[in-house]
Amino acid sequence: MTIAPALAVVLLSGPARAFDPAPERPDTPALSTAGTDGAMSLWRNPANLAFDTDRSYAVLYSQTLDETAGFNFAGARNLGPLGVGASYRTDPAGEGWWTVSSGLGLMLGRHFSAGTHVGIQMPEGSSNNFATWDVGLGWRPLSFMGFSAVAQNVGDPAPELGVESRYGGGIVLRPIGDRIYLGADYLFSNIFQQQNGQTTAQPEGIYELTVRAEPTDGLVLRAYYNQDRILGGGLEMHFGRHGGGAYAQGGLGDEGTPSALAYAASSTDNDRLFGTGRRVAGFLVDEAYPYQPSTGLFGVRSSEGYISLLNRIHEAAGDPSVKGIFIHLQRASFSLAQIEELRTQLTEARSEGKSVVVYLDRSTSNAAYMLACAADKVYLHPAADLNLVGLSAELQFYAGALDLVGVGAQYARRAEYKSAPEQYIASESSQANREQMNALLDGTFTVLTEGIADGRSRSAEQVAALIDEGPFTADEALERGLVDGLIYPDQVEEKLEELIPKGNLSLGYGRRGQMQGWRAPNEIAVVYVDGVIVTGPSSQGGGLLGSGGPQAGSDTIVKQLLLARRDPSVKAVVLRVDSPGGSAFASDEIWRAVERVKAKGKPVIVSMGGTAASGGYYVAAGATAIYAMPSTVTGSIGVYSGRFNIEGVYEKLGVQVEQYTRGRNAAMYSLSKPMDDSEYAAMDRMVANTYAQFRDRVGTGREMSEEELDEVTRGRVWTGVAAHENGLVDELGTFHDAVSRARVEAGIRPRAEAALINYSNSGSRTGEVARTTVRAWVTPDLGVVLPPELVMLETWRALQGDPVWALMPYHLELR
What we know:
CATH architecture of the largest domain: Beta Barrel
CATH class of the largest domain: Mainly Beta
Structural class: alpha/beta
Strand content: 25-35%
Number of domains: 3
Number of strands: 37
Distance between the termini: 65 Å
Largest sheet: 14 strands, antiparallel, barrel
């Protein structure tokens, strides 16, 4: 028996009763228990509060259309999965009834939620107050089908007032996605009757059919019917973030009391009946934008992720209703590669005929200005300076200082370009390190100057000459043509009106989600390798005061990759790598998981961010395809190992050490003495073996010969451009280019729907990338910025216990 006939049997088999309007909850338009999201789900099925956590509201007024002229006024608001509401109703006798409601929905799995609702009921009269309690479940296992179960007024709290328990559930079908919802619900309750001085309960039930159809954006039709021939219908119109509707319900024949309902409710920003005119998509860039942002209690997002911001701008670039894009740039905490990705979206918007305007407020760094130069117009705060000063890199060497305090350092490395140990064993850079450092700065400076030159109609040589004069005051920047005007924030909208006449500015464009919980027909899992690669779980901020930066834990990433491997709806994986490397062992664990995903027939496409070097390249080496940005720092295919000894410190302090061992190299990791030749040889052998394994992973994944490997390995650091020229990456492209490649490799049709999904650090599914990545707890941002020396100490702490490291020799940021 299929689902639909089985449901029909259930609906038609039970006894029926005509439910009177529930006195303990407000009248609502036709809502199903399985498909209703937003604020009104508080009263229908609180589990659905967890599916759609975008903030929403609803205000309703209904009135009976008979001689009683009773009315009901209600309002509800949800903040994430938390909902609150209040309502007031008059009965036929004119007596009032207040209800105050609160509800909570929680995700319990990939597409499963549970929720509860408590109503404080205050009928007229001083001693009539009581509480009602609802519980609900929601399950949306397929893209076109969802189920629900509800228990309302658990425990028959006030049957004498018509408040009885109701139990049941429903199903909703979405044959063409969000355009139409077909719902069927069955609810039954105990009807209490007095017979021969005894109270008996007789279960009686009723089925309800609901339809929600959206034939065009911003226009919604609703219909309702139940087995007692109660029929209802309504119309909604939405105008961006707000909408309203009217709904009427009555019986066929003499059944039921006719009533009318008017209501206002929030809607998505793009849900507009009459279009938007000359719409301007506005973005306030003022956060850190990590890959996996923290969220507060119950999953309420406290920040936005970088991929979410990138997706919103990408959406605006392709939205035909958007005629312009405005970016208010207060903070540009992006890598140069991320700046390039954001610039690509703005360039695509301009190619579609959209005007792009950037306002530089507090952040006027190299990175901020390079992003701004992708716009048609750049404006600067009159009191700001333009800190366009070029690039600098500083390497520090500690061998002399270590000698002074009596600390020795011994390191084994492969190969000559793997220069990280040099800062502890030498007083200056080797020739190989100078060579790669200068090449890296040359490549990065070229990206910077050419990016600015392209946006400001100058040559790269002219931009380089201007950089030599920087930084600039606001007036100097305007005089040299680096900006198009000086304005204060309160003058921005006036300026936009000049540039895009009759433009409708939508600040926070795209910061709303679609209906959550529904499985898409095709899904692409996005997995992040963000930060230093370590064994164990991932974390967003470790070390001193949580300021040590993110750590990419192999346990977490392997779990996420294997979840994507098993999930039948996931057709491909995009592995976003922004990591300087770390533990060679942890990197190999992630590499192996990538191989297992590929063996399942699912392509893995790597999208490199600002840095994907050493272990960051190791995890990418076996991917189906690798994408990088021109300025991505990658390569560094080499490893090293070593340790310090404090024998000299002990001597200065008069500390005597006695050592007892069993085994020739048992004390090779002791801090009290340097390694002898046998111990050093043992360490060197481990480094050689790990390096050979690393080369093998690269050679196999990139189909390179030994001679070709010699040209690109040996620890050499490359820019994305150089890596592409040398065969280490397949294409220069953005995150969205990698997604497009994933679709092709997975055989997803060009016009077919495909959702980007990801997983939390605990391994649970968290929805679409464009909205948020849910984490269990907030990592506090205490505003502490560690100096580079302490960042390296945090890296050592994170890697303790891993004998061989695949880690970049230095940390680079564009500011």
